[in-house]
Design goal:
The complex is a heterodimer of chains A (166) and B (81). Chain A is built from 4 helices and 6 strands. With 166 residues, chain A is of the alpha+beta class. The radius of gyration of chain A is 20 Å and the shape is elongated. Chain B is 0% helix and 37% strand. Classes of the chains: A alpha+beta (166), B mainly beta (81).
Amino acid sequence: MVKVKYLCIAALMVILGIVIAITVFPSEEKRVKKQFRLLSGWVSKSTEENAITMLRRMKDIGSLFDAHCELKVPDQPLSGSYTREEISTYAGSARSQVSQLDLKFYDLQVVFPEKEVAKVTLTARLTGRSTAGERTDETRELECLLRKIEKKWLFSQIEVIEVLKK
Amino acid sequence: MLLKRVIALEGEKVELRNGKLFIDGRGIEEPYVRYPSAWNLSPRQVDKDCIYVVGDNRSMPIDDHHFGQASKSRIMGVPLW
């Protein structure tokens, strides 16, 4: 009877250990997905956002990107390589032109094509309202590359996938 | 995910003339289109392993509508009814 009791306690300890390990040391996939959650939260903007929060968000957004990030948008002059600082500045400028913004990511599929590189395919939906009251509602498929630099997953390439070609 | 109607298959030539659909030069009736348009789309052939899709709501200008050719591999399902 005593033996069974000890076995039960040991099994509980093992289960508890596994739960703690999963919580404290999340998988690489979870770490990658977390970067998308942060980006979504920091890009999104509520109507009550003040200037201090706006400046902090600009800095926060930049911190998610590699020193140089490649942006590929079909048929758009936006394509090119941007530094982290440029991304922060452009994000701040774009966010200042909207009164409300909501960025959501759906159906994230994460693969690791090589060591410390994550490729994520997802659907991004951006909704909002400009300061002039104009509504925005854009949905795009994206393919992102993130690189693990100094234990942090950073966006190094974002490509807008052309799903429908006229 | 997009919900669109397949209007042409691989190899077919798709065209819109004043809102009317033509496949390989043949006029196609589209009773499902609720708001007829005056869209014009020059003839174009659908690539191999691709389909051509358009939405049924065509009340907006053609440039504001998401439509076109997509890979067959992107088809997720079909309507149940």
